[in-house]
Amino acid sequence: LEDAAILAALTACEPDLSAAFARFGTFRRRRVRGLVAESRAVGRIVNMRPAALSAAASRASALIPEAVLARHLASVAGRSAFVLPTS
Question: Which one of 2, 46, 57, 63 has the fewest beta carbons within 10 angstroms of its own beta carbon?
Fold first, then answer.
């Protein structure tokens, strides 16, 4: 959904689609770089071998305070985490 909103905003103010898509790539890269790195790290943890290490990591995640998790989720998925590009 974010990509669609951003592309709509960029194509509305940039008639050259090649330029709009170039701006899109630059604009999105800033936001998703950290998400990709975090996803990669979580994937490594979840798929650790032996499986007992993965299970231990999953159980340890229950020790993270709820407020910390909520703050992190808000930084990733909250309304303030998403901004449209300006002209």
Answer: 63
The ranges assigned to domains in the chain are 1-33, 48-81
Cα separations (Å) of 20 from 2, 14, 16? 15, 6, 6
Q: Which residues contact 85 (CB under 8 A, 6 or more apart)?
A: 6, 9, 10, 23, 27
Burial of 67 (0-12, 13-18, 19+ CB in 10 A): exposed
Residue-wise pLDDT for 14-59, tens only, equals: 999 999 999 999 999 988 999 999 999 999 988 989 999 989 988 9
